[in-house]
């Protein structure tokens, strides 16, 4: 009898632990990177087709941002350079044909899409990472798709044609210099939060068709490396030089890369992952783990587009491997929203992506997710948008801090006052803080609201009612649903989202509200 009682207690204890663990995974963290890729290449996400008027383009973009924001997304990877072209006006490369229908043709009436999307993202408390494809110059070889002034026509010796595409030759020093200059032009002239690369480095080799870079290998190989190590070195040099240039220009800009999900398989290298798939190291000549180890990037965002328990490349094994190989940098997991309704093993389970988020949150060394792509998320494939909005991302979140870039928080706002307006909303106003020890001023603000008698603490996101990346010192709260006493606090955040101590508490008594344009009186 005693043995049975002990066994029962053990089972009960284990169930309780498991239950608590599952409950904890559903708690919305205050800091989490919640990104989405917004693709412009081939008009996958935006604009819906080339050549639309500027007014329609802007409206489509606002609709996308509103939908992403309502889903809880707090960072957008906006594709600004899909094929050595531009979705911005202040730079050396030509306007993209995916924007206006003809390469080199500006939008009419003129506007700058990158300036526009940065401003609108920041209004919604979302970071904007400029997403570049460094080496790809075209998706085809159709002459009519290229303006005479396109870089591939101006400098044909910089390129090789491979598998139906034009590719910059990564082995040429002048190519690396050019790509760096294009990206640094955006860093200097636009208020971006990050520079982002995806997984396109050297192209995948087609069987029987070697890459046509032998001449560059013979000419630019001072270290006498074999050709495969030489290719990896070429990419290394670009990544190393870029991070130095970016951080020297604007120390708060994050540099991140979203590589193919496998670095190396364990059968190829004892340090590799327990997988059996293609690898970025061998197929794309991208030594992504080295970039983390050397501190050349601020975050890694591997594309783990396989389901949990996949036969060859299981999601959970890769997530664990990456979490053990970040070397103190951030890890955001790329998740395949576009696969949510595929009729294949793993994704037939319509809760696959939700289960993956639980894995992400269950690993303390992972700081968030990025979903490919915006339209798949907005279209609510397999109910993913609903799951984010109503469950996983149902409260706002700040991006995680990067203490190696900036560890000094701003000073708190002063003189916070809350009052009910004639239209029954609550207006919160405050005085901007003085400069912090590093001379940073406030970049944005977080507004908190507490019920009367509720414990005042700013570490719980359920009390956040607004996050903004603007310098406005007033906010109007229209979300109160019942009369009562409330307390507001305001904190300041800097460019890297370090948060100040909280302000003075600002109490307010809400005596009446308006519902459906009619007054709803409370007690006299």
Distance separating the two termini? 66 Å
Helix segment tally:
14
State Rg: 25 Å
- Tell me what portion of residues adopts beta-strand conformation: 15-25%
| Uncertain segments | 1-25, 515-524
Class from helix and strand fractions:
alpha/beta
The share of residues in helices is 25-40%
Q: What global shape is seen?
A: globular
DSSP strand tally: 19
- Largest sheet descriptor: 8 strands, parallel, barrel
Mean pLDDT: 93
Structure write-up:
- The chain is 29% helix and 19% strand.
- The chain is an alpha/beta fold and 524 residues long.
- Strands 1-2-3-6-7-8-9-10 form an eight-stranded parallel β-barrel, surrounded by five helices. The protein has a four-stranded antiparallel β-sheet with strand order 14-13-16-17, with no helix packed on it.
- A hairpin with a 2-residue loop joins strand 4 and strand 5.
- Helix 2 runs parallel beside helix 4 (113-123) and helix 6 (173-189) packs parallel to helix 8.
- The longest helix has 25 residues, at 2-26.
- It is globular and about 75 Å long.
